Structure formats: C-alpha cells, structure tokens
C-alpha cells in the first residue's frame, strides 16, 4: 500500500486543530431522538425498558432478522500485539460459527505501514501510522487515524462495524447489539465527562448541549453503522490530536485520552449509544461471566495461593499480558489456585485452548 503524501499528512496535522472547530459550528444543535430521551421521558410512564439493560421494545428487530457486523481491530507489528491478535482471531472464528452470532468478516487494521508475518493467518489491511512524533509517544492516537484510512480505502460489505481490540476474547456468539442510528457501547466507570466539564468544554462548547450528552464510553467495544463511523472517525482523530496537544487535557485524561476523544466526537455528531453492561467483563474486578460476550484482559490478575487478590503486588500466581511484551505466553499456563473467581479461570482456560490450537505458536 502506498503511503499518504507528505503534503497531505502535513496539511492534515496543521488542519486538525481547525477542523473540529469548523465542524462544531455546523453540527445541528437539536437532536431528533436520543437514548437519553428513552430513559428520561419514557421510563416515567413505563412504556420502555432502560436501554442500559436492553433495547426498547418498540425498536427491537424480529427474531428471524440477522444483521451482520464487520469485526475490526487496530494493531501494530510488535510481538505484544501479534500474540493477542492471534488469540482474539481464534475465538472470533470459533464463536462466529455458532448459533446466535451476527459476526461478519474480520479485519486486523495494521497501522505499522508495512505487511508483517501474520498476513496469511489473519485478514489484514495495512495503513500508515501517524507522521513521526505526532502521537507524542501515545501510540493509541494511531487508532482513529487507522480507522479513517481503512474506511476510506477498504471494501466493507457489512452495514455495521464492531470496533474491537487485540486483548478481547469472545466468550460466546455476539449478536448485533446496535439498532439503526443507535450504536451499542460498553459504559466505562472511569470515563466521567460531567466531572471534567471544564476540560470537556474546550472541545464540546455549550451550544452543543449539556455535557451529559457525552456517553461514558470509549471506541471499543462499539457496534456502529458504517456510515455513522465514517462521519465520526475524522472528528475522533482531530479531537484526540487536540486533546493530546493540550497539556491540561493530556495530564487529566492520561491513557484514556483517546477514549474521551471518541466519546466527544460522537456527541458532536449528535450520536448517543445504547449502553450495554453485558457487552464485556474485565477480570479481576468482574468476578462472574454471566451472560456477557467479551473478556477484556487489560488488568493484571495477581493472587496468593489462598486465592486472594493481591492487586498492586505481584502475586504467587499471576496472569498479566504485560509479562509478555517481547513474545507470546507459553502454552499450557498454570491454572489459578482454588478460590480465584470464575472470570479469571475462564480467561486462562481460553488462552490455553487458543495457544494449544494455533499452529506455530511461539514462532511468530
């Protein structure tokens, strides 16, 4: 794939600070319908269910309707990213084949600018990274830029897209949780627009409405219509770049800055999400699998041999993805001791099953 021209990227970089402002002035100030209205107005007369739990009844699809979504994740060519992608893709294939799945095709959006040795194993689309230095050491800023390029250049058959991450494992077949112009997203407890209103107003002026219009989400996991994402993605990129360039915002939001970037960009376009707590669980804090669909293993799991969590202190037994920065974990990891919650046990068993069945594990 050819790289974007230097001139184009330079203009994009310089223009990013102005693009979002210009966009803001054009955004419609009055929303037509929003998830917030479902909660705030209709629950009083009992006509709708809370969309945090499930889709309002009058908007549900018939049981026989099947609407596929394309599964897409962004990745680098680093060993740390590769082994997570291989496990993720293994479970995608397994769950896609089961009843209840609405998973469509799969793409690993590789933002390293060149092919790697997983091209034949995982469907991959190569895009360019941001120009050197623009991410200021925060590699996640490449994510929105990667989606912008992929949406512009790739052929995507499905009407919907799931934005996922390498450290996601599908626990069960995933249906399409979105509906029309209402994407589905997981609510993160640490994304708090209202508590950061002073900073948020730099990017979401008062004329765009209350800060509560911004959902407590990141870009992943999100199932969204492709045409909506095509509108949001450039704004998401520009807002994230502006946030990173602002010292106060950068210091306050830290490693979740790009998540705020997506949340703000969505609100600027008048898009609100159906918040699905059952979309994902995050061990070790979520103890049970329940009826959730994805394990997100972003946190380290440290326990003593009594099965007690020792978070913040390396445990006698541990599983932490960051222990494998330079290469994949070995096959047949030891299971946690008795007393460790179901979520952690399931995570390790699923990692072990994947590594046992992926050809050439440990060699790529």
Question: How would you describe this structure to a colleague?
Answer:
- It is built from 9 helices and 12 strands.
- Helix 1 packs across helix 6.
- The chain is α/β, with parallel strands linked by helices.
- It has a 7-stranded mixed β-sheet with strand order 3-2-1-4-7-6-8, with helices on both faces. A 3-stranded mixed β-sheet has the order 5-10-9. It has a two-stranded antiparallel ribbon with strand order 11-12.
- The longest helix is centred in the N-terminal third of the chain and has 21 residues, at 6-26.
- It has helices at residues 6-26, 35-42, 79-96, 142-153, 197-200, 226-245, 247-253, 257-268, 342-357, and strands spanning 69-75, 103-110, 124-126, 160-164, 168-170, 184-185, 222-225, 274-275, 280-281, 294-296, 301-303, 317-319.
- Helices cover 32% and strands 12% of the residues.
Topology:
Layout: H1 6-26, H2 35-42, E1 69-75, H3 79-96, E2 103-110, E3 124-126, H4 142-153, E4 160-164, E5 168-170, E6 184-185, H5 197-200, E7 222-225, H6 226-245, H7 247-253, H8 257-268, E8 274-275, E9 280-281, E10 294-296, E11 301-303, E12 317-319, H9 342-357
- Average residue-wise pLDDT: 87
Q: Total helix count?
A: 9
Return the structural class: alpha/beta
Shape: globular
Oligomer: single chain
Order of helices and strands: HHEHEEHEEEHEHHHEEEEEH
Question: Order of strands in the sheet with the most strands?
Answer: 3-2-1-4-7-6-8
Helix content: 25-40%
CA-atom Rg in angstroms = 21 Å
What is the CA-CA span between the terminal residues? 23 Å
Unreliable stretches (pLDDT < 50, length at least 5) are: 1-54
Number of strands: 12
Task: Assess the beta-strand content as a share of residues.
Answer: 5-15%
Largest beta sheet, briefly?
Answer: 7 strands, mixed
């Amino acid at each position: 794939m050819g790289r974007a021209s230097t001139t184009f990227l330079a203009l994009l970089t310089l223009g990013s600070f102005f693009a979002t402002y210009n966009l803001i002035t054009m955004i419609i100030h009055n929303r037509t319908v929003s998830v917030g209205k479902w909660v705030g107005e209709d629950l009083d007369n009992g006509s709708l269910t809370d969309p945090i739990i499930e889709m309002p009844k009058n908007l549900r699809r018939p049981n026989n309707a099947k609407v596929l979504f394309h599964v897409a994740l962004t990745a680098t060519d680093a060993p740390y990213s590769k082994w997570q992608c291989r496990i993720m893709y293994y479970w995608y294939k397994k769950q896609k084949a089961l009843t209840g799945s609405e998973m469509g095709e799969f793409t690993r959006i590789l933002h390293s600018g060149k092919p790697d040795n997983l091209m034949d194993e995982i469907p991959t689309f190569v895009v360019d990274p941001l120009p050197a230095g623009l991410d200021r050491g925060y590699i996640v800023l490449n994510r929105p830029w990667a989606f912008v390029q992929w949406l512009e250049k790739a052929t995507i058959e499905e009407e919907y897209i799931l934005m996922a991450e390498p450290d996601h494992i599908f626990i069960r077949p995933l249906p399409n949780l979105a509906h029309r112009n209402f994407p589905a997203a997981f609510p993160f407890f640490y994304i708090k627009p209202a508590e950061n209103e002073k900073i948020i107003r730099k990017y979401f002026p008062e004329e765009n409405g209350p800060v509560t219009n911004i959902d407590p989400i990141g870009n992943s996991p999100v199932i969204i219509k492709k045409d909506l994402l095509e509108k949001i993605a450039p704004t998401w990129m520009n807002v994230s770049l502006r946030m990173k360039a602002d010292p106060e915002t950068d210091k306050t939001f830290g490693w979740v800055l790009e998540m705020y970037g997506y949340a703000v960009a969505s609100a600027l376009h008048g898009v609100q999400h159906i918040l699905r707590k059952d979309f994902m669980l995050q061990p070790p804090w979520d103890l049970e699998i329940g009826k959730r669909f994805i394990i997100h293993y972003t946190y380290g799991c440290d326990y003593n041999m009594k099965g007690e969590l020792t978070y913040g202190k390396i445990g006698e037994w541990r599983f932490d993805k960051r222990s494998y920065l330079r290469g994949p974990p070995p096959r047949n990891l030891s299971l946690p001791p008795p007393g460790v919650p179901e979520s952690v046990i399931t995570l390790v068993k699923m990692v072990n099953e994947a590594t046992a069945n992926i050809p050439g594990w440990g060699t790529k």
